[in-house]
Specification:
Pfam families: NMO. The protein is α/β, with parallel strands linked by helices and about 325 residues long. It is built from 12 helices and 14 strands.
């Protein structure tokens, strides 16, 4: 969700009563602080800030510092992958909550040891980069400890979430569904492709590894994934990254944002298996309201028409 999950989307999701996430990705300290401040100015609600330790590298310490210095309220740090212990300790000491996304039960135990308030078990159903090689239900079956386990991967409707809760999850992170919302910074053609896609139109590949090597990723199929052999890493597009205009070689991990120009269909259009349920682009608030209505209907059906209780826990992913 790198450049897709910006302040506008994060604030809109939080205002809807879910938990929006703004992604720092490879932002420097000043840019990280600006993203936090911008999001805070757009909503009075709690929101999450996402970091990716293995991509941020030496920037991570400064990104966490920018969050701590800029936050005007208790927030939630959403870490994609295990967070180094010193950074986890800084976040917790400052009174913020910590959510850590993992791809194995073993890493979930490590996250618990870091003091995480919750862990996210990411299955291979998810769009974007993968932290493991198992599906959600297999991961849930292997995880039987505190803290609460959320899931990420193919949760697009309220009925999907009910299925996940019945399998043992406490809530879900949703990414692909929010790519097509009005506040998303995704390129229009990327959104349109998601709205046309079915489950057979996604594939797990390693062909978008420039800038983020070593992680398989689920994307929409296209010329790059379907070529019998890897295509040359020639220039295919231009995009805006961290305030500057940057070239995009074929095979780059960069997702197509609204500023991208060129052969966008050959860029990394991340998509989870839940894309098959997406057919309408809506504002984030309308999507969350629809999600809640679907959840209520599915729960009522399960209970034989009895009134349902509290709504589900749902947030945007900040990968």
């Amino acid at each position: 969700m790198g450049g897709v999950a910006g302040p506008a989307l994060a604030a809109a999701v939080s205002d809807s009563g879910a938990l929006g996430t703004v992604a720092l990705y490879k932002s420097n300290p000043d840019q990280s602080a600006a993203l936090v401040v911008d999001t805070a100015a757009r909503t009075r609600r709690t929101f999450a800030v996402n970091v990716i330790p293995e991509v941020a590298g030496r920037l991570l310490t400064d990104q966490v510092g920018a969050l701590l210095a800029s936050a005007d309220r208790p927030l939630l740090l959403n870490s994609y992958g295990l967070l180094p212990e010193p950074e986890a300790a800084r976040v917790l000491a400052a009174g913020h909550r910590l959510l850590i996304q993992v791809g194995t039960a073993a890493d979930a135990s490590v996250a618990a040891g870091l003091g995480a308030h919750g862990v996210v078990l990411q299955g291979i159903e998810a769009g974007g980069h993968h932290l493991g090689r198992l599906g959600i239900r297999e991961l849930l079956a292997q995880y039987d400890q505190e803290p609460a386990a959320f899931v990420a991967g193919a949760v697009t409707t309220g009925a999907d979430l009910l299925d996940a809760l019945r399998a043992g999850a406490s809530g879900a992170l949703c990414g692909t569904a929010f790519v097509v919302t009005a506040e998303s910074a995704a390129h229009p053609s990327y959104k349109a492709a998601l709205l046309r896609a079915g489950t057979g139109d996604t594939v797990v590949t390693d062909r978008f590894s420039i800038g983020w090597p070593g992680r398989p990723h689920r994307v929409l199929r296209g010329p790059v994934t379907d070529a019998p052999q890897p295509l040359p890493a020639t220039l295919i597009a231009w995009t805006s990254v961290m305030g500057g205009r940057r070239p995009v070689p074929r095979g780059s991990a960069a997702a197509p944002t609204a500023e991208a120009e060129g052969q966008v269909e050959q860029m990394a259009r991340y998509a989870g298996l839940g894309c098959a349920a997406l057919r309408t682009a809506r504002p984030a608030a309308a999507y969350v309201a629809g999600f809640r209505a679907e959840f209520a209907a599915a729960l009522a059906a399960l209970r034989g028409g009895q009134p349902c209780g509290k709504g589900p826990a749902i947030s945007t992913s900040g990968r």
